[in-house]
Specification:
single chain, 15 strands, binds 2,5-anhydro-1,6-di-O-phosphono-D-glucitol, Fructose-1,6-Bisphosphatase, Chain A, domain 1, about 30% helix, binds manganese (II) ion, five-stranded mixed β-sheet, D-Maltodextrin-Binding Protein, domain 2, 8 helices
Length: about 350
Amino acid sequence: MSHALSDAPASSGALASVMTLEQFILDRRDRFPQSTRAFARLLRDVSVAAKIINHNIRRAGILDVMGETGTVNVQDEKQKKLDEIADRELERALRRGGECCLIGSEEQPETVSLSPHGNFQERFAVFFDPLDGSSNTDVNASVGTIFSVYTLPEDIDEEDSLDVTLRPGAEQVAAGYVAYGSSTMFVFTTGNGVNGFTLDPGIGEFLLTHPDLQIPQERAMYSINEADIEDFSPKLRAFLQWLKTKDPDTGARIRARYIGSFVSDFHRNLLTGGLYMYPARTNYPNGKLRLMYEANPMAFLVEQAGGRASTGHQRVLDLQPEGVHQRTPLFIGSAPLVEAAEAYLQDREEEVPRVA
Ligand code: AHG
Ligand code: MN
Ligand code: MN
């Protein structure tokens, strides 16, 4: 499947597209829910931070940025040096831009109120996972950044800021991720489809390479940490068995892929079709992934790409958040596969759709 905008063969050296992310944001401003200068600047700020993070990741191993910092974050996870760098760069970019009121980061215990500056009509709150899959950094595997954007009332004060910002994912105005893989991609939505941009390292620009992404409906891939199977419910085990059963007519079977970096696993499944799962486990009824900066932004993206995201029992985007670091079970990807998971988990096996 090629998303390139020209027919030039890959070896010709011709650029697939010369539409930069910045041009795209300016050109499509009227199609964004927020057609303001502030919103365009916000996206630009996130993309600048992404380039700086990318620069650090690409030199990992040469610079002293690998390994742990010796500290743990609020979720008791060991922080990596790159977690800290990514967190700092995103916060810096958003502070500098002046249009963001409040940030919530995986690496910071509480939301942080920024003093916006500049004469903007709109103020934003941004939640982010600065470096996702950071256990992969030391082994040269793919990682990512995830972000989620909400609009805030203009008169927000520090006291009520947290209550005001903990809104269901359905109210996001933008969301996206950066995948630092064999190439670096910036993929985002503002509620009007999903577009993907690839970083041209030579000119330092993200170029539109994957316009209007739609997730294939096939059961191409499934992604889950199956080493946890003993902690899965019998219903989930039954579903996994169904998933792995060959199509009786065609003999087609699903493939398993699990990188352990949500962004990378999600990105691959978005392009090929498939299902990513991080389910509830015994002792972890809410799974592992965090609602505000992992599940919600990806749920918004996947729905915009024609897919589905569920806890197994309800739509992720309808959950009312109660905390910045709240976790949720997650089934996300091609709609028929997510529906099949829901049918199994809700004892409606007879309603499992046929998936090619
Ligand atoms: P993070 O590095 O931001 O803490 O996220 C790690 C997440 C996610 O990226 C990945 O899919 C999952 O943890 C892997 O967890 P397991 O090792 O339990 O499979
Ligand atoms: Mn993560
Ligand atoms: Mn992280």
